[in-house]
TrEMBL record:
<comment type="function">
    <text>Required for accurate and efficient protein synthesis under certain stress conditions. May act as a fidelity factor of the translation reaction, by catalyzing a one-codon backward translocation of tRNAs on improperly translocated ribosomes. Back-translocation proceeds from a post-translocation (POST) complex to a pre-translocation (PRE) complex, thus giving elongation factor G a second chance to translocate the tRNAs correctly. Binds to ribosomes in a GTP-dependent manner.</text>
</comment>
<keyword id="KW-0547">Nucleotide-binding</keyword>
<keyword id="KW-0251">Elongation factor</keyword>
<dbReference type="Pfam" id="PF00009">
    <property type="entry name" value="GTP_EFTU"/>
</dbReference>
<dbReference type="Pfam" id="PF00679">
    <property type="entry name" value="EFG_C"/>
</dbReference>
<dbReference type="Pfam" id="PF06421">
    <property type="entry name" value="LepA_C"/>
</dbReference>
<dbReference type="Pfam" id="PF03144">
    <property type="entry name" value="GTP_EFTU_D2"/>
</dbReference>
<comment type="similarity">
    <text>Belongs to the TRAFAC class translation factor GTPase superfamily. Classic translation factor GTPase family. LepA subfamily.</text>
</comment>
<dbReference type="InterPro" id="IPR005225">
    <property type="entry name" value="Small_GTP-bd"/>
</dbReference>
<dbReference type="InterPro" id="IPR035654">
    <property type="entry name" value="LepA_IV"/>
</dbReference>
<dbReference type="InterPro" id="IPR006297">
    <property type="entry name" value="EF-4"/>
</dbReference>
<keyword id="KW-0648">Protein biosynthesis</keyword>
<dbReference type="InterPro" id="IPR027417">
    <property type="entry name" value="P-loop_NTPase"/>
</dbReference>
<dbReference type="InterPro" id="IPR013842">
    <property type="entry name" value="LepA_CTD"/>
</dbReference>
<dbReference type="GO" id="GO:0003746">
    <property type="term" value="F:translation elongation factor activity"/>
</dbReference>
<feature type="binding site">
    <location>
        <begin position="18"/>
        <end position="23"/>
    </location>
    <ligand>
        <name>GTP</name>
    </ligand>
</feature>
<keyword id="KW-0378">Hydrolase</keyword>
């Protein structure tokens, strides 16, 4: 039995990070009986361990809620969870496109932030009706009335029906359910008799069921035994199971128009499923496919190498497994003179990079060295061809290059006025071009165009430290612009360390080079000989430091003393060695790579 359209509501929750989206989602699940209170693990929607630890939502999920409204009618509410971090903006946009309404959650003590704006504008672009939810009214600092006005003023939407709640205590949450039913529209179209037409919203790999495909049905019915066709790729699959998440996985006989659910079939890899693809029945096809989505493009690349070269096979298996579940992560084999065999990996952003690296280390027990993150540069070559550069080490001879283009972003920053000066300076130092400055109450709203290259390293950390954590930030890629970029090499003991080479703007090269040399000087241990550390552009050295020679050997002070203590010291040294890489005659600790690449100004 499928549910009539007017008894279905499909909605997302959009919010700035930490404004309480997951807490509210949990409350809604709890109130509608999806979970008994005692089963409630904190924040069920954030299912991966790392997500839970970091308190961020990565993988968009959906949950079907059964709700008996105050009018006595039964409704199906499909909650489509969306990630809150800028790196995952693409996942936000695809989940929003599959539903009709949004709850806009705003922390009533903090007010509108950068990602509130970015996310709500995406919802508006998708023609969503919006219910404003002012959360955390239990906090003494909450000012729901003022924030309601702010939402109207800054975002320009009607907030007269805003629901005031505390997702933490549960106060007001039942009103959210009523608002979903009465203020959000049911699915706009849907013909049960028409040929199957469904949108592929997401897919992931499950160890027991294989690839699970999340769909939103537009027309027709999806059920077991059907042969379906993906219209974009042309691939055909037999449907083996259909079901929904409540959030527990429950099989259902069929999925009808307006509904969300999943199916499994003979699909081998997540890569075989394209988000945004139209799914239809092979023997009775829908006439017109949905407008497609473009796949998420990696914007940041870095090399990942095992600390111990013998672990390469394990790394190969691990990246393969991760990719099964995360099609936005890409990799190809790379060899580095300094680091041996590894993978060049592409990510949606820096957070995505950190998460993947952490999962590889934690879930697969690998020790890794990550090279400097690099954006994708476009090289215009003299022979008229264009080459994408994912790795500074692959840069062709400069005489072959007529121009280098780099990606730019448009950033929105909201900050209390007190920190405006520091932030303006930061943006300016990072080659930013100010596009706008206005005020949201007492806070400044800054719009800047910045080269992504200047943001990937530590911009966000710097912004947070300058503003004592109060500034919020969001960005999207805009275009490629030509820049005066040069490749800077780092030489340790006269040997170039390919993993540390990077593209930098000419005006910033000397400062970066100097900082890098100083940092490496601190991080590379003394050896028995003097070690020069140099930064160079082409053949020209632009910065130099020297590590003086070591005088004593570590065990000298134990001479003639306690043997166990001596052995302990040697063991400790050996342990340290494991995390070292040898470059010519010099041992560089893994930590040196990580720290050297995370540089402040
Ligand atoms: N006092 C108070 N704290 C709340 C309320 N709702 C959520 N919080 C707290 O605010 C923090 C962030 O809440 P989350 O639900 O994780 O926020 P989120 O928006 O889902 O964050 P992301 O998943 O990272 O995007 C948590 O520490 C919650 O316990 C509320 O109504 N009152």
């Amino acid at each position: 039995m499928t549910t009539p359209l007017d008894h279905i509501r499909n909605f997302s929750i959009v919010a700035h990070i930490d404004h309480g989206k997951s807490t509210l989602a949990d409350r809604l699940i709890q109130l509608t009986g999806g979970l008994e209170a005692r089963d409630m693990k904190e924040q069920v929607l954030d299912s991966m361990d790392i997500e839970r630890e970091r308190g961020i939502t990565i993988k968009a999920q959906t949950v079907r809620l059964k709700y008996r409204a105050n009018n006595g009618e039964d409704y199906i509410l499909n909650l489509i969870d969306t990630p809150g971090h800028v790196d995952f903006a693409y996942e936000v946009s695809r989940s929003l496109a599959a539903c009709e309404g949004s709850l806009l959650v705003v922390d009533a003590s903090q007010g509108v932030e950068a990602q509130t704006l970015a996310n709500v504008y995406q919802a508006i672009d998708n023609n969503h009706e919006i219910v404003v939810v002012l959360n955390k009214v239990d906090l003494p600092a909450a000012e729901p009335e003022r924030i309601r006005e702010q939402v109207e003023e800054v975002i320009g939407i009607d907030a007269s029906n805003a629901v005031m709640i505390s997702a933490k205590t549960g106060l007001g949450v039942p009103d959210v359910l009523e608002a979903i039913v009465h203020q959000l529209p049911p699915p706009r179209e849907g013909d049960i008799a028409a040929p199957l037409k469904a949108m592929l919203v997401d897919s992931w790999y499950d160890a027991y069921l294989g690839v699970i495909v999340l769909v939103r049905i537009i027309d027709g019915v999806l059920k077991k035994g059907q042969t379906i066709r993906m219209m974009g790729t042309g691939a055909k699959y037999l449907v083996e199971r259909t079901g929904v998440f409540t959030p527990a996985r429950v099989n259902v006989d069929e999925l009808g128009p307006g509904e969300f659910g999943f199916f499994t079939g003979s699909i081998k890899e997540v890569a075989d499923t394209r988000v945004g693809d139209t799914i239809t029945e092979d023997r009775r096809q829908t006439a017109k496919a949905l407008p497609g989505f473009k796949p998420a493009q990696p914007v940041v690349f870095c090399g990942l190498f095992p600390v111990d070269a013998a672990d390469f096979e394990d790394l190969r298996a691990a990246v393969g497994k991760l990719r099964l579940n995360d099609a936005s992560f890409s990799y190809e084999m790379e060899t580095s003179a300094a680091l041996g065999f590894g993978y060049r990996c592409g990510f949606l952003g820096l957070l995505h990079l950190e998460i993947i690296q952490e999962r590889l280390e934690r879930e697969f027990n690998l020790d890794l060295i990550a090279t400097a993150p690099s954006v994708v540069y476009r090289l215009l070559l003299n022979d008229g061809t264009v080459k994408e550069l994912h790795n500074p080490a692959d840069m062709p001879d400069v005489v072959k290059i007529s121009a280098i283009e780099e990606p730019w972003i448009r950033a929105t920053i909201l900050t209390p006025d007190d920190y405006l000066g520091g932030i303006l300076k930061l943006c300016q130092d990072r080659r930013g071009i100010q596009a706008d400055l206005s005020y949201v109450g007492k806070r400044a709203m800054l719009t800047y165009d910045l080269p992504l290259n200047e943001v990937v390293f530590d911009f966000y950390d710097r912004l947070k430290s300058i503003s004592k954590g109060y500034a919020s930030f969001d960005y999207h890629l805009t275009d490629y612009r030509e820049g005066d970029l040069v490749k800077m090499s780092i030489l340790v003991n006269e040997e170039p360390v390919d993993a540390l080479s990077m593209l930098v703007h000419r005006t910033a090269a000397e400062k970066r080079g100097r900082a890098m040399c100083e940092k490496l000087k601190e991080l590379i241990p003394h050896h028995l000989f003097k070690i020069p550390i140099q930064a160079a552009i082409g053949g020209k050295v632009i910065a130099r430091e020297t590590i003086s020679a070591l005088r004593k050997d570590v065990t000298a002070k134990c001479y003639g003393g306690d043997v166990t203590r001596k052995r302990k010291l040697l063991d400790k040294q050996k342990e340290g060695k494991k995390r070292m890489r040898q470059f010519g005659k010099v041992d560089i600790p893994q930590e040196a790579f990580i720290q050297a690449l995370k540089m402040g100004d």
